Amino acid sequence: MSSVLSQISLLSDAKYFEEKSSQFAELKENLDHKNMKKRLNAMKRLIAMMTIGRDVSQFFPDVVKNVIVDNTEVKKLVYMFLTHYAEENQQLALLAINSLQQDLKSTNQRVRANALRAMSSIHIKVVIPIVMIALKNAVRDTSSYVRKAAACAIPKVYRTDSGRKAELVDMIAELLSNAEPNVLGASVFAFSAVCPERTDLLHPHFRKICHLLADFDYFGQTVTLKVLTSYARTQFLSPFKHGDEENAEDAPFYDEDEDEDDDDDDDEDDGEGGKKKKAYVMDADHRLLIRSATVLLNSADAAVVIGVCSLMFSIAPLYEARQCAPAVARHLFNYREMQYVVLASVSTMAAKRPAMFRQYVKMFFVFFDDPDFVRELKLDILANIASDSTIGPILLELFSYVNHYDPNFVHQAIRTIGRCAMKIPDVAERCLHMLLRLVSTSSEDVVAQAISVIRQLLQRNPQQHVAIIKRMAKLLFKVSIPMARTALVWIVGEYREMIPKVAPDCLRQLAKTFLDEAVEVKLQILNLAVKLYLSNPKQSSLLFKYVMDLSKNDINFDIRDRARMVRALFFKKKSDDHKNEGLKAKTKMIMKKCFLWVKPPPETESPFQQRENFTLGSLSHVLQHSVVGYESLPEFPEVAPDPKAREPPKSEYEERLEKKAKKMKKKYKNVDDFYAESESESDSDSDSDSDSGSDSDSDSDSDSDSDSDSEEEPNTKKPKKHVADDDEDDDSDSSDSDSDSSDSEEDATPKKSAQTKKQSQPQPAANLLNLLDDDDDDDDQGENNNNVSAGMFGPSVQNNDILSGLTFEDNILSGPPSQQKPAESSSQFFSPTPSINVPRRMNRGVLLKESLGEGMEVRYSFMRQESIYSKKMAVVELEFVSRVEVRDIHMNNVQASGFEVRPIDRIPVLHANQTTTAKLHVDFKGQERKLKFDICTTDRKYPVALCATPGDLLQGCSISPGEYESTRKRLTGMQEAKFTTTKYTSATDLAARIVSCAGVSPMPGSTSESTKLAATLRDDPTQRVLVTIEKSGSGFSVTINCDDMLFLGRVEDHLRKSM
């Protein structure tokens, strides 16, 4: 059987989770393979390894290449990988932006939606302007699938950049006007995440949401129910203040004539004074919400059912909310985790509305395979729903749990019996006899717990249970568990007057075993001695003094302190007896009040009572404490807001009909005039239509055309409204003039709507420069950006497109605009200028201190030279200085995730007081992460970490002055940074400082007023970095231009700190 299951798992996608499927070399090869099936398998393996927690970020460059493939399945997996590792590889993630923008123009709706989803999941602020443009287009997309993706992307953008809330709220308002259920559910989710306080956005769409709620998906239903619950608590009156919840058990379900009854029963008689008071009438929208939510009780999703229960529990009366009980009971046989959440909600509802679940009492009986947390909740529910009609089966079930194998569960069951007895006094006697039967069992734990519960029950009515009290006193010499003995001693001391002969004898027996008792038992014995001394001093005075003497020298300090306090109050010196006779009597009276006061019966509370303070179904409700982001439900208003705010907006056609109706009402006084005039109008219209039928369309066609145009273009509404208003004011106009004016209106409408259509067409976002322009220039930008040319792998944007240099195919294969070949020999890296000294070493520091290296110190310095292994590698010179002789120096345990490292050569021996050097070659991949490794000797290893600065990631280059200026003009806007310094007297001194801390090379022609420096990125030689130093007032301005926008900021910070 196991072999068959293993074969089945290998046939499915489960095989990708096998450990043997993680051959990295094979994966890297398959990601670049021409066969699309191998690429798909490689991506599935990467996603599987990413799912189980393995770090596969080293494949990020290889995965980004596959963004441009046409296979939608591969593209979807690439998007998943991209969004997961985008924050760690921001530079490479930007390379995929252009491809994502191209996918947003795809004819496939799923490709557009996936591209928008991936772009919004890249939490990089630089990309947010592009995402906002894409969102504006997606909100108006013809596909509801894309609009839903846009709604889900809005909260992601808000989390990345909360400063764009105003724009996002406008998008949410536009999305809420959709009629598609999927889009509407996602829009409500965006509303709850961005602007839950803006209830004015929900007012016009409330009824639409209620009617379409059943068509939402499960996630949309869950979120919408939560939002509507909060909305109802702020817009409707409380149904709980106007009715008796306890007397509503027999109230009917929904009736067909329910609305009629509400109208007839507005007033009810008070009974005593004969005055009439207005009964509570539920708002129509309030009832609509409850009815719409009731339909979802048949949902197969437990979260939706819990959401409905939370809504009904918070805003519906009992006779409405009890419909939740059968739906909740259906989900009690789900997974154990879901059972816990469902039972937690039932426990809270049953505590306040137990009548909801009393007919389903057997659904909460404990099964043999229930886990501990489920059993505990079921016991609490049984105690809450116990009543005169259900107590019989509940007690029998609880008594059967005494034989359970789990002692903790047995204790909980016994305590539940006590809760039922305290809740229903009529069954207290029956519960006492059940507990007395448990006292005679062999299990001491069960006996102890039963005695503790019996003590609580006896406090209710001790006079009727004198025989039980005597029986409890006899058990004092059979039970050895401290908790049980403590309860028994308390019972004897509390009800000593009912057993006057038994109580002193019990104190005598307890005094014999006082030294061997537990601390809590000793304290109760001491209290018993005081109580007997105060109530019956003749029989117990000697025992009292004996117990005082034993307590005075006890090991426990609590007992010693209690005994000394009692002794000081009751025993005085003989010389002071006559003087303080009154004080002694007063003290004795106070002590009697303290020790002999009748104790009130205890009130047992549910262990989950804290849950009642939180919203049903929330995370705080499950965890029983407030979590970050929790917001409690608002209170019901005292006065209901105006319900007219929830009226849906009228369409233009409805407004036109309403205005015509008003005109007709003013013009015609009676019905005969109306029909007489309408007949004459119809005759004249038919004649005119017959005459002009060959040249023009009918009036109805023009009306429908104008209506459709007006619905598509809302900007054309205002002129029509003005014309209609003018027609209303002119009451003396004839029907012919009215028809003429309306015809002229309709003739003008197509022209205006055509102009509006031309202006409102969405334009593609081609480059980042458009983000800095005004919205009024969208048309010009759209025309310029349509000029594209097809590259090797797809279209690439021309003109001044900033991100065109970041496209993968442009950078890696063809290069950015105005690109020239990089320097090919090391001689071109240095163009020495007489006034600027170019050092061999840049960044220096201590890698291993002498104190930590046990006499050996390791220093590092980044060299200004090419690596013999790769041009992308930086050369780091390690200098070893030792005061003692060290042998076999080498590197080990290199933690270079994503780096390429060539370790140093082994150093056989380093004699005392000698120095040697070794070269380390590292490709940092353009990152400033730490390279961790161990410097090992024969018998020692020293963990160290090496980190490159932005200046170490640069390599000097030499370019012509003309190319320098053209490149500088190209790299503007977000690819340019500038700052000013006044610490240097000449540009050459400032340039020398910059050259010493960054791998840049001075350009020919440097002067004391102006100096130019140039470099490329080691990781990508096509990316240029230009530094221009110019005179600015009393100081010098430093301008930095770079192809990589992210790296530009890092270089600027590095140079500022170096100044």
Describe the structure.
By secondary structure, this protein is α+β, with helices and mostly antiparallel strands. Helix content is 50%, strand content 11%. It is built from 43 helices and 19 strands. Strands 14, 15, 16, 17, 18 and 19 form a six-stranded antiparallel beta sheet that branches. Strands 5-6-7-11-9 form a five-stranded antiparallel beta sheet. Strand 17 (1010-1017) and strand 18 form a beta hairpin. Helix 2 packs across helix 3, helix 14 (218-235) runs parallel beside helix 17 (302-315) and helix 26 packs across helix 27. The longest helix is centred in the last third of the chain and has 26 residues, at 735-760. The radius of gyration is 43 Å and the shape is extended.
Shape summary: extended
Residue share in β-strands: 5-15%
Per DSSP, the total helix count is: 43
Helix content: 40-55%
- Output mean pLDDT: 77
* Strands, count: 19
> If you compute it from the alpha carbons, what radius of gyration comes out, rounded to the nearest whole angstrom?
43 Å
Largest sheet: 6 strands, antiparallel
Q: SS-based structural class?
A: alpha+beta
Uncertain segments are 1-11, 244-276, 678-834
Question: In angstroms, what separates the terminal alpha carbons?
Answer: 72 Å
Outline the secondary-structure elements:
Elements: H1 2-11, H2 24-31, H3 36-51, H4 60-64, H5 72-85, H6 90-95, H7 97-103, H8 109-121, H9 128-139, H10 144-160, H11 165-175, H12 181-194, H13 206-212, H14 218-235, H15 258-264, E1 267-269, E2 276-278, H16 284-294, H17 302-315, H18 318-321, H19 324-330, H20 336-352, H21 372-384, H22 391-400, H23 407-423, H24 428-439, H25 444-458, H26 466-474, H27 482-494, H28 502-512, H29 519-535, H30 537-552, H31 557-570, H32 581-595, H33 619-623, H34 652-667, H35 671-691, H36 699-712, H37 717-729, H38 735-760, H39 778-785, E3 788-790, E4 795-797, H40 808-814, E5 841-848, E6 856-863, E7 874-882, E8 886-895, E9 900-902, E10 907-910, E11 914-923, E12 931-936, E13 941-946, E14 954-956, H41 961-970, E15 976-981, H42 987-997, E16 1001-1002, E17 1010-1017, E18 1024-1032, E19 1035-1042, H43 1045-1058
Antiparallel strand pairs: 1-2, 3-4, 5-6, 6-7, 7-11, 8-10, 8-12, 9-11, 12-13, 14-17, 15-19, 16-17, 17-18, 18-19
Helix pairs in contact: 2-3, 3-5, 5-8, 7-8, 8-9, 8-10, 9-10, 10-11, 10-12, 11-12, 12-14, 13-16, 14-17, 17-20, 20-21, 21-23, 22-23, 23-24, 23-25, 24-25, 25-27, 26-27, 27-29, 28-29, 28-30, 29-30, 29-31, 29-32, 30-31, 34-37, 36-38, 37-38
